[in-house]
Structure formats: C-alpha cells, structure tokens
Amino acid sequence: MDVVIVPDAAAVAEHAAETIADVVRSRRGAVLGVATGSSPLGTYAALAERVRGGGLDLTGVSAFALDEYVGLDPRHPESYRSVIRRTVTEPLGLDPERVHVPDGVAPDLEAACVDYERRIADAGGVDLQLLGIGANGHIGFNEPTSSFASRTRIKTLAPRTRADNARFFASEDEVPIHCVTQGLGTILDARELLLVAQGEEKAEAVAAMVEGPLASMCPASALQLHRRATVVIDRAAASRLSLTAYYEYVQEHRPKVKVSA
C-alpha cells in the first residue's frame, strides 16, 4: 500500500485528480469506479477544472458507482443516482449512458446485483476505483464484518453510518436502512485503488486500514491485499498513524520506477 500524506484537503484533491487524469490519458476508454460521500467531492471538483480548462477529455470514459440506497426514488436529490449526476456526470462531461449506478428500486434486487457485476465485467473491469472511508472503516457500504470475498449485494446499514449520512437528509429517520453495494471482492478486482480521506474524524479509521491487522472489523483494511492501492490523506487524517515519518521518507525518496507494494 502506498501512503501519500499531503498538507491539506485541497492537496488531497489535486493529487487524486492528477492520478485519475493520468489513467484517463493513458487508457483509451478508461473505466472508472466512482464513490459518493464528502471525501471525493474535492477530487471531482479538481477534475472538473481540468476538463473546463481543456487539459482533460473524458469522452469515451465509463463509470460505475459503488452503491445506492434501497427503496429511495432515483429522482430523490440524495439518491446516489442523483448525486453522481450532479457531482460526476455533468461537471466532468461524461456520457450519461456510460455512467452506471446500482438499481436500488429493482423488483428483483438480487438479480439486479448479479446484473451489475455482469455489466462491470462486460466493460472490461474497472481501471481505477476511487474510494472514501467511513468513520467505522467501511468502503462502499461494506460495513464491519463484511466478507473480503463479497460481491455486489444487499446490505443493512450500520446505525453509525445512518447517523453520519443524516446530514444529507431532513432527519436520520429518512436515511434508508438498506443499500445495494459493490462487495469488497468486487472492489479488489479493480486494477488500481485510490482512497482519499481528510480530517481528524477519519484518523482512527485510516490508522486501522493502513497499520492495523487485516480484519473484517475494518473493511478498508482489504486494501492491504491489493498490489496497486494508494491512500492519499491530509495531515489531520494521518494524525493517528505510527509510521508517518517513514511514509514521508518514502515520498521524498520515491524510486523513478514503480516497485511492488
């Protein structure tokens, strides 16, 4: 796992955006995995600046969202279909037909989950998956005790997750209890993982992910299993790490060729 520590949230966004831009420039018709929540918003804004300035063309790029609430009208402003449209599809100039979000209102949710996995496979797999991390260590909506082999499926949201997401709704009671999420196994299939985190409230989860044991109690620790996983965090999110000096030393002395994690 490559840990990159930068001064602040703006630097996280810039570093992550340039990493994604490099993938898009190097792979014709790249397939991106996109996340919701507050963590990736700065990255999307930084990418949109590159698109507006003419330095990045996302024509032909496809995207697959990590998750969606079950039972929430897709037209609801906080459905992830709506959120992805506002924060990703429109500002980045993506073709809406190439942007996919799990179906949380399908008559047969299990069949919809299988179909989502098929669509990712038919697209050739995800080249780069952008991730955030929840305060309890979840990625996507894979809550603690999720299987590292899990695929896209229906999950019950943890009370803490619903409480954290209540800020997007009028009250916590409006936050759906269930979701459809890509599994940890699905996420690990991506060729490259890029996780961004900012703020001290994420520091404990970041430390468990990077330096803790590989454990289902911290689903994000699954990134330790991936050969090309990069974690980009600001100093606040890095505040609980034990080996900060080493990570910064590695950044300063980064080899000119890529080495295995």
What is the fold's blueprint, element by element?
Blueprint: E1 2-6, H1 9-26, E2 31-34, H2 41-52, E3 62-65, E4 67-69, H3 80-92, E5 99-100, H4 109-122, E6 128-131, E7 153-156, H5 159-165, E8 178-181, H6 184-188, E9 192-197, H7 203-211, E10 229-234, H8 244-252
Parallel strand pairs: 1-10, 2-3, 2-6, 3-5, 6-9, 9-10
Antiparallel strand pairs: 4-8, 7-8
Helix pairs in contact: 1-2, 2-3
Describe this structure as you would to a colleague.
α1 (9-26) packs across α2 (41-52). α7 links the parallel β9 (192-197) and β10 (229-234). The chain has 8 helices and 10 strands. The model has no long low-confidence stretch (mean pLDDT 96). The protein is globular and about 55 Å long. The strands form 2 sheets. The chain has a 7-stranded parallel beta sheet with strand order 1-10-9-6-2-3-5. Strands 4-8-7 form a 3-stranded antiparallel beta sheet. By secondary structure, the chain is α/β, with parallel strands linked by helices. Helix content is 33%, strand content 16%.
